[in-house]
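@here heads up, posting the sequence + SMILES for the adenosine-5'-diphosphate run so it's all in one place. Ping me if the SMILES looks off, I pulled it from an old spreadsheet.
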Amino acid sequence: MSDLEIKNLHVEIEGKEILKGVNLEASKGEVAALMGPNGAGKSSLGYALMGHPNYKVTAGKITFKGEDITKLPPNERAKKGLFLSFQYPSEVPGVSMANFLRTAINSRRDKKPTSTGVDGAQSQQRNSANGGMRNRAQPDLRLGNPMPVGEFIKQLREKMKMLKIDESFMHRYLNEGFSGGEKKRAEILQMAMLKPEMAVLDETDSGLDVDSLKVVAEGINRLLNPETGVLLITHYQRILDYVKPNRVYIMMAGKIAKSGGAELVQQIENKGYESIKVKAQ
Ligand SMILES: Nc1ncnc2c1ncn2[C@@H]1O[C@H](COP(=O)(O)OP(=O)(O)O)[C@@H](O)[C@H]1O
Ligand SMILES: [Mg+2]
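bot reply: prediction finished. Complex structure tokens:
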């Protein structure tokens, strides 16, 4: 069983059916790539995964770590470890990047630590479901108190250095006046700080020059670990030259037209999307 399972998902926007029975799986520790031409429905799938209210699920099911999340509100999904980076990130004047990140991190840590309460019991269940493999040295982000400021700044500095983001960005308003490349790096920084279990990255490569692309790809590769997986949404194959996918899905007209391994990327590069026919209904 995969950590994220999408089964026969049908999604409507303003009464129009956009996703027409999508099946897709992604797991922690792996990269699943979702490719497809413009307008195929890739971003819509990302929004539906995060529970955006305009994207109405009319049939099908999304399960994450074995739990049906199809009807959960976005904040509950985020707390469970799902993360979505947007194709077109918004500018948030008045909120500094540091403040935004700290708030986001702490909202995932807002349950009180207890050894006997509901949280403790859930945590124990989770541990035994994992075969007790959760690394004890890594604090569980869903438990505990707000991250101390010193620890937060230390981590933020470290990750910014890794992603070659200037320290001055800490105090700048989120995405305001950021160049395309800076916005994309800022998204990877969010992912590095939030440590999601499944990150959905929508067109993280679009508009990047080759140097920025390499920095972003390296950032993604470093963040991959047994507890973090990535669903990489992309129109172009070029980021997949740097981030190797374990599985590849090709979406066309709201359906997965083909799925397979990394070799599919080459096929798209050589022959284009037209070489893949949408399966008969
Ligand atoms: N908010 C919306 N309202 C109406 N139609 C939308 C909306 N968002 C997306 N669509 C339509 O859904 C289809 C899929 O779009 P999208 O998911 O953005 O595709 P992709 O990310 O693969 O380019 C397109 O036909 C698009 O016009
Ligand atoms: Mg899109």
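MO: The pocket of adenosine-5'-diphosphate (ligand 1) is lined by residues 13-14, 18, 36, 38-44, 54 (CB under 6 Å).
MO: One more: The first strand starts at residue 4 and ends at 13.
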